[in-house]
């Protein structure tokens, strides 16, 4: 009996414990980062607008995220009378869960990834596509025309810009020759892809702004004509899950940008001084830089009209990314410029 127990422990119990430890080691810091991203957003935009931002709760307002969380937890969860209760509750849970599940294949350092699968990019595509369902479920289950219209607008926006994001990622994968995100990082040892693929980097940044429903593409909120979009009927922690899911997606897209274009955890130059700094620190610094672009854009640009948003996605970005995909494939075919996955050196 003891041998059977030890065999089960060594075969299933201990590996499962290791996986759970990896998940907690990633998810807990991520949730804290999501909470403090709301704080830094208010601080950064406040300084850009000559305001102080949060400065009352704790030193420099550092406890403001905890105050917001306690306030939301103590509010009442209101279910609309004619709403579909189960779907109404499941929608924000699905949205927040998907924003965390996607991190399973994101490498934050050399060997620091929960699942180093060879189809990591396809996995991210699948998870990001499922994100639309949470919003559609929220709009439909609310039994409100305003919420449903907001959900339709948001779904159309997300699907439109997923197309351009997919083509941009295809350009990167052509240069790498692998769907493994660790291979994508290692292929940038000599040169980050942001340099040869600069136009695609710009398109990708703009597309992830629209994909995450951030300004100037925050049309789903549409407080002037749709009250608050798909989440108009939500309150308390159900609203908080949508709110946290949006910010978790911002961090996820910033991490993906870092991996695809900014060399992941690799230092900008291969020298002894930069190599002394841990790769996780480089990764976090690059993610913070992309997140600053999110906040910078929100404080700078006015909101697009919906027809402008759709025209940009379908009539500008889609033809441009397809053209660049053909150019990239042609250059690789004619010159043999590809990234060697085994050494990470461009050949």
Characterize the structure shown:
The protein has 347 residues and is mainly alpha-helical. The protein is built from 11 helices and no strands. Helix 7 runs antiparallel to helix 8. The C terminus is likely disordered.
Which key terms come to mind for this protein?
347 residues, mainly alpha, globular
How are the elements arranged and paired?
Layout: H1 2-48, H2 64-73, H3 85-101, H4 120-141, H5 145-176, H6 181-186, H7 198-211, H8 236-261, H9 272-276, H10 279-300, H11 306-335
Helix pairs in contact: 1-8, 1-10, 2-8, 3-4, 3-8, 4-5, 5-7, 5-11, 7-8, 7-11, 8-10
Summarize the structure.
Helix content is 67%, strand content 0%.
Mean pLDDT: 88
Residue ranges: pLDDT <50 for 5 or more in a row? 340-347
Which secondary-structure class do the elements indicate? Answer: mainly alpha
Strand-residue proportion: under 5%
Percent helix range: 55-70%
**DSSP helical segment count:** 11
Q: Supply Rg.
A: 22 Å
């Amino acid at each position: 009996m003891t041998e059977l127990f030890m065999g089960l422990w060594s075969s299933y119990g201990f590996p499962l414990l290791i996986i759970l430890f990896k998940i907690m080691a990633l998810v807990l810091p991520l949730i804290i980062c999501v909470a403090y991203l709301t704080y830094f957003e208010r601080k950064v935009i406040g300084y850009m607008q000559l305001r102080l931002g949060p400065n009352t709760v704790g030193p420099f307002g550092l406890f403001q995220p905890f105050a917001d969380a306690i306030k939301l937890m103590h509010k009442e969860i209101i279910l609309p009378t004619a709403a579909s209760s189960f779907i109404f509750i499941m929608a924000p849970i699905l949205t927040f869960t998907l924003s965390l599940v996607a991190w399973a294949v994101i490498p934050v350092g050399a060997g620091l990834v929960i699942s180093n699968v060879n189809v990591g990019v396809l996995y991210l595509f699948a998870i990001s596509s499922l994100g639309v369902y949470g919003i559609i479920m929220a709009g439909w289950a609310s039994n409100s025309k305003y919420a449903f219209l907001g959900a339709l607008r948001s779904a159309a926006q997300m699907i439109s810009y997923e197309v351009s994001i997919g083509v941009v990622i295809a350009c990167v994968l052509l240069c790498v020759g692998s769907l493994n995100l660790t291979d994508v990082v290692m292929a940038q040892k000599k040169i980050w892809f942001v340099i040869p693929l600069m136009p695609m980097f710009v398109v990708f940044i703009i597309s992830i702004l629209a994909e995450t429903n951030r300004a100037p593409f925050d049309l789903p909120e549409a407080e002037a004509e749709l009250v608050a979009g798909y989440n108009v009927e939500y309150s308390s922690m159900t609203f908080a899950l949508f709110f946290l899911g949006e910010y978790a997606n911002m961090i996820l897209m910033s991490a993906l940008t870092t991996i695809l274009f900014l060399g992941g955890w690799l230092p900008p130059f291969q020298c002894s001084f930069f190599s002394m700094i841990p790769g996780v620190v480089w990764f976090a610094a690059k993610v913070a830089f992309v997140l600053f672009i999110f906040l910078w854009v929100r404080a700078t640009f006015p909101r697009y009209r919906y027809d402008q948003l759709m025209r940009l996605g379908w009539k500008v970005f889609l033809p441009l990314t397809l053209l660049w995909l053909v150019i990239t494939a042609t250059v690789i075919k004619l010159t043999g410029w590809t990234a060697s996955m085994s050494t990470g050196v461009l050949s």
